[in-house]
Amino acid sequence: MPTFPHTHRTGLTRREAVQVGYSGLLGLGMAASAPAQSGSSRRKPNSVILVFLTGAASQLETFDPKPDNPAEIRGEFGTVATPVAGVRLGEHLPLLAARANKYALVRTLAHTDNNHTAATHHLITGAKQPGVRFDKPLSRDDYPVYGAGLAYLRPRSDGVPAAVTLPTFLADGPLVWPGQHAGFLGPRYDPFQVTQDPNLQSFKLDNLRPTGIDVDQLRDRAALLDAVNAQRRSMTASAEGRRLSDSQQHAITVLTSGRVATAFEMEKEPAATRDRYGRHSFGQSLLLARRLVESGVSVVQANMGRVQNWDHHSNIFPTMRRLLPPLDAGVSALLDDLGDRGLLETTMVVVVGDFGRTPKVINAGRDHWAPCFSALFAGAGVRPGVVVGRSDKTSAYPATTPYSPDDLGATVYHALGVDPHSEVRDRLDRPVQLNRGEVIQPLFTGA
User: Fold this and answer.
1) Mind telling me which Gene3D superfamilies this protein's record contains (predicted)?
2) CA of 347: how far to CAs of 96, 100, 110, 271, in Å?
């Protein structure tokens, strides 16, 4: 099983911002036009909040505990009962356990990439990228994230970005991980990237530019940007140049529009609501996700913690005791809040990491384990109180039908009203199938 140094942190250096291509500023998933979607669904589209447990939380301490095993497998934690017969969760998720009749669990996700970069790309794009290694950086050859695929196939021009990612890029030192933007679809479909903790008192929209430009500066520089672009267009009339110019203009519109800016005014949220989510990065990021969906954003990816938060090769139990309660409070409050506001019917919530952890405790931790892991799904037609799939007695391998990240991606696109098998075009105008998975039907039909 491959290992490599973990020197993760949040945020972007200037060098990394250049590597990303300033996608947080220049590409907000707001194309003015795009090719028609092939084989598109006619269902009413929904929104998706992807809660990504970056670094890979252990399935045995969360959604698939195995309490009847010896300590070297079951770990130090106990379990807690749920309202669903026969279903128990790890003891540090009591709030989610009490709400097990509001969501479904899939316990047989599986793939073959035991490194973070390849696995993360696979989970947040729904497509396996050939040649992705642990040291592979973000690239315009990557597959697009879900919000980018949606923006390409169902463009909008209402001043609201199709997708937002928060509150950090996933990076390992100077290496920005692949699969975090629109990839081969181009920067005009990139998500709007938030790079600051919503729990900070100083958090506000004009602090959220990867380049540090605030709204007033952005307005002032729009004229300069037009002049620079005019000069560039006089030098080249390429289609790519025109697309970048369109993307910049859309970025200016979005970043200065009241409809988007209002969602970031966290101080206007009632104190009691903020308290329920938890006054920490996890909780406030999920509250911001709800506010963004309420403002019309279709896809929000909330990266729960820095990469190393869930990557527990050692010291797993003390660390999980610290991390699980904020996650428990935040996701529980999100499900309650969406339900109370009538948004859960049209918003799918997915909680998943890049893979699972080894069934056996090794050096007081659990290593990377892609053959079997779990995910939580709620809303947008998902049958509540259901467990899809069963792992073996140690949660090492699926005992029933396994589901791949491709299938998870197909399920996300299905919730968004997009045919997962739609054809898109890459940077060389070649046809590419967006996703090759199949919808996880038991989440919806019980089949």
Assistant:
1) Alkaline Phosphatase, subunit A
2) 18, 17, 25, 24
pLDDT digits (tens, 9 = 90+) for 58-94: 999 999 999 999 999 999 999 999 999 999 999 999 9
- Rounded Cα distance, 102 and 87, in Å: 13
pLDDT category at 282 given cuts 50, 70, 90 is very high
Tens of pLDDT, residue by residue over 410-430, are 999 999 999 999 999 998 899
Whole-angstrom Cα distance, residue 272 to residue 266? 13
Domain boundaries, given as residue ranges, for the chain: 14-443
Mind giving me the DSSP string for 66-96?
-TTS-HHHH-S--EEE-SSTT-EEETT-HHH
DSSP at 260? H
> Which tokens in the block code for residue 214?
């605030």
CATH of domain 14-443: 3.40.720.10
Residue 304 near residue 50, CB atoms below 8 Å = no
Rg (CA), the chain: 21
Whole-prediction pTM: 0.84
The helix (H) or strand (E) run that includes residue 423 is: strand 423-425
The C-alpha atoms of residue 208 and residue 196 are separated, in whole angstroms, by 6
CA 348 to chain CA centroid, Å, is 12
